Amino acid sequence: MSSDEAEATGPGGGLYAALQQAAKVAILLVATDFDGALAEFTVDPHDAAPAPGGMESLRRLAALPDTHVALVSGRDVRTLTELAGIGSAESIVLIGSHGAESNRREVVSGGRLDEAQRARLDELTEHVAALIDEHPGSRLERKRAAVAVHTRGLRQESADAALAEARLIGADRDDVRVLKGKSVVELSVSHADKGSALLSLAGLVGADATFYSGDDVTDEDAFRALDPLSGDVTVKVGSGVTAAAHRIGSVTDVVATLHQLLTLRAAAVEEREKTGRR
């Protein structure tokens, strides 16, 4: 589905109807990207924090019967845990490194990097470190299976030059996956993706429908993996060409949409329990 076909910006209309249907299924999986969906972007990626109300709705959803919740991110799981404030006893599943790792081991198939992958990542990190020195203000982020160049806050011309050089480092290499995001290019030695990890989790919990929201290019793997015709709800945050069925405008809209889904799911669960008592 192209951006022209996606639901018009806003958490109402067709999106609300889709949420109503998803809320009624027996087993529901609710998942969202972190940066740009649940949290506003910041100049320093380590300063990101969930928007008010977002985590509250996710925690309340996770507490409902037959309702599973996941955060999906390009961040590694350790960083995602810290930024989202997830406690060790919480049932929220974390999928990090674009699907390459999770706090629930059955979700991902990649496991630890082998010796060749570790060496490749060290090599890429050296190249990126040299790039950072040549482009003051850009930042390096080392992840479990990737190294990223961040340019948020730089002048457009400087940012474009740094990102173009980062893309060249991984160009024409079958052993490196180049991931282009908003003010970031990531060079990964893993070929995992968010869509595969999300489908794996949905299968593990037996989900009858999955909700997913995200804003970035890597979220398109999840949008393409899910099937709105079968009851899944895919939500693009912001502008850009997308495979998602619906579109909303901002992180604030994501929080509002999660609250809507929480209200609908709680009502559906209550109605089902009443029916069961009869």
How would you describe the overall organization of this protein?
There is one protein chain. The chain has 278 residues and is of the alpha/beta class. It has two domains: 14-110 and 192-277, Rossmann fold, CATH 3.40.50; 115-188, 2-Layer Sandwich (Alpha-Beta Plaits). Helix content is 38%, strand content 18%. It has a seven-stranded mixed beta sheet, sandwiched between helices. Helix 1 (14-23) packs parallel to helix 8 (251-277) and helix 4 runs antiparallel to helix 5.
At a glance:
Helix content is 38%, strand content 18%.
Structural key phrases:
8 helices; alpha/beta; Alpha-Beta Plaits; 278 residues; Rossmann fold
Tell me which CATH architecture of the largest domain applies here: 3-Layer(aba) Sandwich
Number of helices: 8
Chain-averaged pLDDT: 91
Unreliable stretches (pLDDT < 50, length at least 5) are: none
Q: What is the succession of H and E elements?
A: HEHEHEEHEEHEEHEHEEH
Architecture blueprint of SSEs:
Blueprint: H1 14-23, E1 28-33, H2 54-62, E2 67-72, H3 77-84, E3 93-96, E4 101-102, H4 115-134, E5 139-142, E6 146-150, H5 156-170, E7 177-181, E8 184-188, H6 194-205, E9 209-214, H7 220-225, E10 233-237, E11 246-248, H8 251-277
Parallel strand pairs: 1-2, 1-9, 2-3, 9-10, 10-11
Antiparallel strand pairs: 3-4, 5-6, 6-8, 7-8
Helix pairs in contact: 1-8, 2-8, 4-5
